Amino acid sequence: MAAAGSSMLYSLFLFVATLSLQEMFRAKLASSELFTILGGFTSSIVFLTLLTFIGNYQETIGVKTGWGAVIIAEAVALIAACTVHRVCITTCFLFSTGLLYEVNKLSGMTDIKAKRKRMFT
């Protein structure tokens, strides 16, 4: 597993790159129904990378806000989605909800593995 500092830098780079590419190709993403759905998906990737950055930043400084990081990351992703097309807002929210569910599931699995490892060592 990557350290919090390097993961924070990678996620910040991916956040900036994804957001920049989304804004560069916003006319193409708004041109058809399928590209509009793709625009919502790219905005949900913006959500995931920003959530990773905020979580790693909080871990680095020793503060945790819980749902605050999720709300901030989702707000930024929805604002990014609304610059492309209004349907992107809905698809971004739906994709982000699915990604958040999967991240929560993965987090729980790694937490259980870490507890078992500590128990048997």
Describe this protein with a few key phrases.
mainly alpha; transmembrane helix; 121 residues; KRTCAP2; 87% helix; elongated; Dolichyl-diphosphooligosaccharide--protein glycosyltransferase subunit KCP2
Q: What does this molecule look like?
A:
Helix content is 87%, strand content 0%. The protein contains five helices and no strands. The radius of gyration is 16 Å and the shape is elongated.
Mean pLDDT, rounded to whole units? 92
Tell me the β content.
under 5%
Low-pLDDT segments? none
Largest sheet at a glance? none
Report the C-alpha radius of gyration, rounded: 16 Å
Query: Distance N terminus to C terminus?
Result: 19 Å
DSSP strand count: 0
Instruction: Work out the oligomeric state of the chains in this entry.
Output: single chain
Query: Helix proportion of residues, in percent?
Result: over 70%
Please state the overall shape, judged from the principal axes of the Cα atoms: elongated
Order of helices and strands: HHHHH
Total DSSP helices: 5
* Helix-strand category: mainly alpha
Brief rundown of the structure:
With 121 residues, the chain is mostly helical. 87% of the residues lie in helices and 0% in strands.
Draw up the topology in text:
Blueprint: H1 4-24, H2 26-29, H3 33-61, H4 67-82, H5 86-120
